[in-house]
Fold this protein.
Amino acid sequence: MKVLVIGLGGVTNGGKTTLAEKLKKMLPNCDMISQDDFFKPEPEVETDERGFKLYDVLDALYMDEMVKSIRNWMKSPTSSGVLTEEPQNTCDNLKDTEDVYILIVEGFLLYNYEPLNELWNRRYFLTLPYEECKRRRSTRVYQPADTPGYFDGHVWPMYLKYKNELEENASNIALELPTSGVGARGKRSQVAASSAHSFLLCSEHGNHSAVP
């Protein structure tokens, strides 16, 4: 049995969840975990001197629980409830892949937490220009709602901070996937699916099936 863990990280409102859901339909025996499910309750999230809730930092998340959930899936992917039906809208060589279980993990702070970096087989980083990111953010409804100045005062600076850390310290991001422009959505899903398939071919002798 082969196990593949794919990370989809990057900018807020960059389409990570949409891409993860599309890949889940394209890839065989595929399951999904979202980092948003590990946010701490609002009273446990720190507030800064400006009154901003500091959600875009690692301390706002139960990261240990997230790692535990991924490791539990890796130990027993067949009992995770993942559907084993034939993938939709994918190429024939992926449909023929047998005894392979794939977990897609999507979130905005995946690659700045070292225990998670031990788990990835493939990882991708989605980016957006400032103006487009701010526009998309303004169309979303959050609970609690973004306060005036929150995007410029907290969300975007934290994204740049963690992206800079990633660029300085990491060398094995597979690709920065396009998130805007003509055909970007279709292109990024095909690129990620193709890369996943390449990994499966390279690991056909079981080189990547061990669970940490």
In short: The beta strands are 2-10, 30-34, 100-106, 122-126, 175-177. DSSP finds seven helices and five strands in the chain. The two ends are 14 Å apart (CA to CA).
